[in-house]
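To the team - magnesium ion complex, inputs and output below.
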Amino acid sequence: MAVNEQSDPYLRSRLPQQELAAQARKDLGGILAPEERVLYAAVSDMSLQGTYADTWIVLTSLRILASTPQLSQTVQEVPLAEVTRLNVEHFVGNGILSAAAANQTVNLARFSRRFAVDIEKAVAEMEAVLEQEPVAANFVRTHDKAKQIQRKKMEKESNRCPNCGRIMKGSVCPHCLQKGKLIRRVLGYVKPYYPQAIVSTILLIGNGLLSMVQPFLTGLLVDEVLMQNDLGRLRAMVILLALTHLANAGVSGFRTYVVAWLGQRIIRDMRSAVFRHLQYLRMDFFDSVRTGAIMSRITNDTQSLQNFIVQSAQQLLLQVVMVFGVGVILFRYDWRLALMTLAPMPLIVYAARLFSRKMHRVYRGIWIRRALMNSVLADSIPGIQIVKSFAQEPREITKFEHRSDQLFGRHIDAAKYRGMFMPFLTFATSLGTVIIWGYGGYLVISNAGLSVGDLVAFLYYLNQFYNPLRGLSGFSDVIQQASTAAERVFEILDTEPEVKPESSEIVLKDVRGEIEYNDVHFAYDASEPVLQGINVKMKPGEMVGLVGSSGSGKTTMANLIPRLYDVSAGQVTLDGHDLRDIELQSLRNQIGVVLQEPLLFHGSVAENIAYGVPNASRSDIVWAAQAANAHDFIMEFSDKYDTQIGERGLRLSGGQKQRLAIARAILKNPKILILDEATSAVDTETEKLIQEAIERLVKNRTTIAIAHRLSTLKNADRILVMDKGRIVEQGTHEELMAMDGVFARMVKMQSEVSSNMLAS
Ligand code: ADP
Ligand code: MG
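Output:
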């Protein structure tokens, strides 16, 4: 069902408050008393009974009320003097807004999911008004932090197009990204290469003109040479014809090269732009989009855009030139025939529109299936070790083949539509040719001013007219393909990066390393708070241990420091500056991270250690490796520091990888250090070496050490115990043991486990 833009309640709800209030007054004329002032008006899209109908929710100087004028004049209301609070409840498909009074709760209005955020917002605003209103003396505003965060998150997640209010999947509204705009934007990439583009366009027009000469020469050949039996001129004409063909071939060869250069160049620019932009996107973008889908945007989608820019855009131009040029020539030859030529046109246009609509859906489907197939690759290849050790190869194969089959199916759909459309098109145009033979033949025989040569030339031109016309009608197919690709490429480019270049930010220089969490709340998504009111201050150089059951929010808490995510409420400060005011690069330069699963890149050992400091000298690298207890095992490798390691460090043990990661952090020499379960994955032997290395590393740095093995935190200045996003205990190891609380229980459990293991 198409939504009429004007009557769409969502669009209406976006009107300024004043206009809304005026409209409400008009719509509810019979209900509001003359002296009743409208303080606030909002719209929902459902009646209380659950049918879709615009419903007013109005806060007046006397009461809060809701009514659906379209259905009846009944009103749900609570007098202002009695209202104590407003409630919003969200259910699966819809929600209810109610108002509570001392002895009753009145359901005011129902709303669909689409309106959930707007209603939440309206309620917050009405609460603010109520708070100020003397009549509403019983009203208490509930300051519920979790609720506020939920509201904010919902608002973000609902992700509406600022233009049309439709819900978007990404950050780009497919409805508002008009194809014309998209294509213009794609063509914007041609700008730096105007000279080459102009040359290739001139060559193109040259091609067009040369081909238009040929039918004319053929016509002459028939009338002036064949009909006159003139052998002498036959030779000249044939040579002339051959020359035009030769010239055409030459021009088109050169053009092919220029166009290919241009296209590759543009696509190179576009690929780089996408990748560059991608590097600066927020973590939550990568949480929400599959690796396979991102890869396919950078490789396939830019490729299809290239095809569009170089092949199709030029083809389009040539086709337009030919259709108009030849069209004019056709009329010059014989206007009666020319009119007949146009007879099958409506049929062609109609079919082309139908076809293009179908194809858009099919191409979208193809793209989704291809991304799904790629994501099987992106999962199973890096995880091949797990796949093999669980002997799940057949499962992965089945999964891949299933996806591959689906892709096949979609391509077949495309072929089917093309198979129906193309022959139809051919038939419609041949119909034109047949008509011309019939009517043109009649004109020739009846001596009505058309020569045989004219008819022959006309038929040639007719071909030159229909061919590009056929191309043009298939062109919407090409535009569809290109615009779906452009949509996805621009969706990345239009996603806001984490670095906002315009803001005046603090560039950190001398950092002391004092970190403070100030009533920090955080949620990845609206439904579940992960951090709930973290308050902690870490002194410069302090080592703070973080323990707690898995899922309690330790990693999340640490990830806020390099701003992999931003707080939902509250703030984190470094040396007194809110992290969000600090220039990101300078912040991250101060932070070293060692993770449980250290990631190593393709390259040599030395390159991996120097990842954060690419211009480090060899002696610095060796020094860092020594401090990390890594030097000895590195020297045992055949190529020592130049040994190549695979992308996941396949040739190294867990403990070795860990020490390389520590060396990497030591070399970077950060003021702040995050160790996230850095010793969890290694054996006790190696752990001692790593522990030593870490002791050297943490000196003079503010350190957050997340540890599973509690014994590794003996040296921590302070230990925070986390549970369900809250700090439940803190103190030194001894203090916590003396407290005999959560921590003491955890320690006891761990020592039991290890003594059991020893005993068995
Ligand atoms: P810990 O490190 O203490 O084991 P985490 O901070 O990793 O805990 O996770 C805390 C909670 O946040 C868990 O419930 C987890 O499922 C959730 N979570 C962690 N990372 C993400 C993410 N990228 N997106 C959504 N939820 C996440
Ligand atoms: Mg963790």
